Amino acid sequence: MFLNKIMIVEDDRQLCSLYSTVLAKAGFDTIQAENGEDACNKLENEHVHLIITDIMMPAMDGYSLVSAIREYDPEIPILMITARDDFPAKQKSFNIGVDDYMTKPVDVNEMVLRVNALLRRANILNDHKLTVGGTLLDYDAMTVTTEAGSVDLTQKEFLLLYKLLSYPGKIMTRLQLMDEIWGPDSKSDAQTIDVHINRLRRHFEDCPDFELLTVRGLGYKAVINKS
Predict the structure, then answer these.
(1) Cα three-residue angle 32-35-39, rounded to 5 degrees
(2) Nearest by Cα to 193 from 210, 225, 166, 215
(3) Choice among 6-15, 92-101, 120-129, 162-171 with the minimum mean pLDDT
(4) If residue 93 lies in a helix (H) or strand (E), which one and from where to where?
(5) DSSP H/E element including 224
(6) What is the pLDDT of residues 80-128, one digit of tens each?
(7) Is residue 206 packed enough to be buried (19+ CB in 10 Å), middle (13-18) or exposed (0-12)?
(8) Is the pTM of this model over 0.90?
(9) What is 183-222 written as a DSSP string?
(10) What's the CA gap between 105 and 172, in Å, rounded?
């Protein structure tokens, strides 16, 4: 089952480790970055579902990071956790695209509640059924049904399709897909993704609801066909 991946951007290493530990116990996967610049570099190769960031950091502060993220991803939930408790800081944060704001020191249990709420609003957390046109993917049963009937997929084929259709239009690299579906310790190589994509294309070649496109040199993306 997929774990929602959260990036924590915080230059205080102890605090960053604390957030990571608490979120891991709550069932999340985490990745840590020490400042905005480090976060941007890691986001080039990592697909995350939510970002927690501080404001005051060296190299690139939280404001610059949020502004940079919003240029290419207007929807990913962002939670600002900072010592700045003044209204101008909060106002600027929300104006540039932050979704929620907490002031240090934070109650980590409340942080988890807010993370869950943000993911629910983004239709990511606990969304076990995915509808794309006339196609229905049921995560719990791992079944796919189209207007023409049910489609039998292997577990990995289903997970790959579910992942791509959960983020239509978003390019995912082979490495990202391998890590999230096969796991970082898998002995399979990136060509495994190509094989599974080709199988999925054959399964859904007559399905009018979506297409799985190759983005040369990068990876794959799902495109929803509008009726």
Answers:
(1) 60
(2) 215
(3) 120-129
(4) helix 87-96
(5) strand 219-224
(6) 999 999 999 999 999 999 999 999 999 999 999 999 989 887 765 445 7
(7) exposed
(8) no
(9) -TT----THHHHHHHHHHHHHTTT-SSEEEEEETTTEEEE
(10) 36
